[in-house]
# Entry
Amino acid sequence: MQVKSSRRRVNRQIFAKRVRLIDSTGKQRGIVDKDIALAEAREQNLDLVEVAPDIDAPVCKIIDYGKYQYEQNKKTREGKKKQKAIQLKEIKIGLQIAEHDLLFKVKKAQDFLADGHKLKVVLFFKGREITHTDLGREVMMKVVDHLKDSSVVETRPSLEGKRMIMILVPIQKKT
# Structure
């Protein structure tokens, strides 16, 4: 298995005897000897950079390698800026939660969903409360009812040990 290198071969690092040359203006010059391509690059004070190494006559461009690297790094940075990391936010509630406390948690949950984050609702059972999972499902359904305008249930309430877990995702706004 061949490992792909992120670094391009430049000038004398190119192994092939013949290369498919693209000059500094972007015009294809056809298949030429590597030494001729290197001489042309040197005449123009530029570098011969291997762009597509995986074919019989690798594609090489005559370009300024420093400028090329800068442009590639700039593109990757711009791509990273545009990516938005969706986080999984979590709210924790108990079975005996009061109505006002539940509304407070729901308000915070709406903020998370408005920011585009997924939401994990965790209901903890303490002691013998675990025997009343039906009451836990009712509390979870109250949360779903309060958040029905801003979210959709991705994972229905399920019991994991002494916790009941449900995952909500924000409703995608049509643009």
